[in-house]
Amino acid sequence: MADTDIEEQLREAELEIYARRPEHQIAPTLDRIGALVSLLGDPHRGFPVIHVTGTNGKTSMTRMIDSLLRERGLRTGRFTSPHLVSARERISIDGVPLSAERFVEIYDEILPYIQMVDDRQPAQLSFFEVLTGMMFAAFADAPVDVAVIEVGLGGRWDATNVADGAVAVVGPVGMDHMQWLGHTIEEIAGEKAGIIKPGATAILAQQRVAAAEVLLAQASTVGATVAREGIEFGVLAREMAVGGQQVALRGLRGVYDEIYLPLFGAHQAGNAACALAAVEAFAGVPETVTPTTPTGRGQGGAIELEQGPASAAGLDPGIVRDGFAKVSSPGRLEVLRRSPTVIADAAHNPAGMAATLEALTEAFSFTTLVGVLAVSEDKDVSGLLDELEPALSEIVVTENSSPRSMPAPALAGLAAEVFGEDRVRAAGRLDDAIEIAIGLADEASSGDDDLLGSAGVLIAGSVVTAGNARALLAPGRAVDAPPEPGTPARHSFTVGDLQ
User: Fold this and answer.
1) Pairing mode, if any, of strands 424-426 and 394-397?
2) Which CATH number fits the domain that encloses residue 47?
3) Which residue from 20, 359, 424, 445 could staple onto 127, CB 3.0 to 4.6 Å apart?
4) Helix extents (H) in 185-289
């Protein structure tokens, strides 16, 4: 089949899926996805699952777990969301997104069953439910040895939760998606706790006390084993390294040092600790720990842990090092070009933005940082701006390709309240906004050799924003490939309207 033909078929399939109820419009029930997987022969029962939720860090943890499992010789399925460029990215086998041809094949194969469910249910399957059904079918057909599945939203009612995870990983719980998950930490944690199933092992990132209490209560109710970051496992040490950081991790079954992690920030070191513990738990933990008291998330740096005797049944340290060294997390503090340095990040809530800025300050020595912000209307926009204001010299507000994107004039008005009008620029298109920001960064470092390279641009506010920036500045870079060495060339921004 000609490449042009399959690309056109892929576009048609994606448009049909996108035309359905979007993933952010929640109709809480597992009935629709349950009916679909039943018609498909329960493919979600054909492989063990490591299930990942949390407010921030889900995608990075999922990718780390996947890399470690593949390094151990297992065939993996990986499901992440949202995507940066193409829906194909969400469903990966052995670390590689489905090909256009395979994506279309699976969609065509299950479409009759999708239509049957649509006809029988009060509401049609959503965009996310269709992709979840495709994911289960693809993984069962491969077949995979283990699936690492990221929750789309929340946990309890998420379509992925028809599967029962042998390991449930809960990243830090914060305030996001309040209109669907609840307006308190306890309510949001309760939704995310829904992925902790009877007999599972729950791997908990460091949490606020209120969230930890809810998660521990759920684990106790269903009889799950619990391991907590900062108590049973965690980060022992970390230091900066070229292109990332060097970390030492205490896992459930041993201590692993001299690990190179090609990602920036203390939050990514914590994500790595959770990923390691999840893989150890999946491999089988000889001794379990009864949970006692919750713990709160630290503010970065090393975590103090008691140095008890480690199990001799730990993972091969070489495999752990190799697995982490191969990790990538596109759109997470990703350098898209240099001179000036332009970085894209998917941070879209205040907690995520705070972690991003902390990591950026630690890893880069910018004297001037210009921001480009495009964000969804339903986010805590004021909270994002409050986090950004101390770090940015100026901000260029704009729009991304999502229909949920806040119009630039409205965002400019909110930004002016935080930054002052003289520090705010607005552009209706992301490519124009990036060009303005690059010009401001160049201006800040011009005329003085000592300042060359001291200015940077941060593009953030949404996964869609990061994906759009990637399409503009690094169009040939594969989502699952590390950036090529060298300095990316300047772009003329002639890419058509991303809408």
Assistant:
1) parallel
2) 3.40.1190.10
3) 20
4) 185-192, 209-222, 266-283
